[in-house]
Specification:
This protein has eleven helices and eleven strands. The radius of gyration is 20 Å and the shape is globular. The protein starts with a strand and ends with a helix.
């Protein structure tokens, strides 16, 4: 029988994690596979471990749910790797690894659809779900790799430019059919064991963000395809596990680790000078957007200090090599 390990990382969001686990427990009953769940707690220090353990005790008679408390919070990739690494070194290594955010609710058939797709497509190494809000509205969760032209489009935010650079838009419109994407959101991502064996674990040099982009790029270089499977549906409470992209709390600056991850991705995969070019291109494009926004009196929905923080934590370290 196939073996699947589900990995959920918790940091001070026990209620979200419990909701995700409850929906997952129902889904596990419909899957013809041996499914185990590892909940990794990143030294929350807020009774998360006790509260989650109390919840899973109600349906953990077969011992398929385990809590792995860490002594330090070293980031999302590090926490996932803690569980994946243990499983990879065990005598009964899982066939698949499902990375699932704590701020998700698994809808019926979500895991079944992902597993069926990988079973039917042996050349595919990674699959991602359709993420959606509580109202069923889809979220963009299948993407293209970031690039200089993609950052130009992202910074400019001008429809004629977007049409011209449509092939490089990082977050294309949501589609209703499966398709081969460059990368899929790590909020719900099923990975073959062979991919991890070939390309290694997530890069824990990323504290949070860009780690799944980097992983999918490494998989692509190893000739593994990544697909978006919209028949697998997962409710995603955007940003509520990290607090970074939480749409209910506008006006919050992006944290330094977001910029560090962005810089690391471009520098690691494309080199320092390309990363500098990306940052300069984005900054110029973004300045044109800010000017046009003022002239047209459009609302400012960007995080505070986006340009100055980007200069401080991306451009300047790249320029100085620090």
């Amino acid at each position: 029988m196939l073996k699947i390990l589900v990995v959920i990382v918790n940091f001070r969001t026990p209620e979200l994690t419990i909701g995700s686990l409850q929906s997952l427990h129902l889904e596990m009953k419909s899957v013809d596979a041996d499914v185990e769940v590892a909940i990794v707690d990143c030294a929350s220090g807020d009774q998360s471990v006790e509260r989650i353990k109390s919840c899973i005790d109600d349906f953990n008679s077969d011992g398929r749910f385990q809590i792995l408390p860490l002594s330090h919070n070293n980031g999302f990739a590090y926490a996932n790797n803690a569980a994946i690494g243990l499983a990879m070194n065990s005598s009964s290594m899982p066939d698949y690894f499902w990375l699932l955010n704590p701020d998700t609710i698994v809808k019926p058939g979500a895991l079944v659809e992902l597993l069926q797709f990988l079973t039917n497509h042996p050349q595919v190494g990674i699959v991602g779900s359709r993420l959606e809000g509580e109202d069923g509205k889809p979220q963009r969760s299948a993407f293209r790799f970031p690039s200089l032209l993609g950052e130009l489009e992202n910074g400019t935010r001008f429809r004629p430019v977007s049409r011209l650079l449509s092939r490089w838009i990082v977050a294309p419109p949501v589609r209703d059919e499966p398709f081969c994407a460059d990368w899929v959101a790590g909020a719900s991502m099923l990975v073959r064991r062979e991919v991890l064996t070939e390309v290694g674990l997530l890069d824990d040099g990323y504290f949070m963000y860009y780690e799944e982009v980097d992983f999918c790029l490494r998989a692509r270089k190893a000739a593994w395809d990544c697909w978006y499977v919209p028949s697998s549906r997962v409710v995603h409470f955007v940003g509520q596990s990290s607090g970074v992209t939480d749409l209910t709390k506008p006006g919050k600056p992006l944290p330094k680790y977001w910029f560090d991850s962005r810089r690391r991705y471009f520098q690691k995969n494309h080199g320092r000078f390309y990363a500098l070019g990306v940052q300069i291109t984005w900054a110029i494009a973004y300045l044109t957007w800010r000017l046009r926004r003022r002239v047209q009196r459009k609302p400012n929905l960007d995080p505070p200090n986006l340009l100055s923080d980007s200069f401080r934590w991306v451009f300047w370290p790249l320029l100085t090599g620090r």
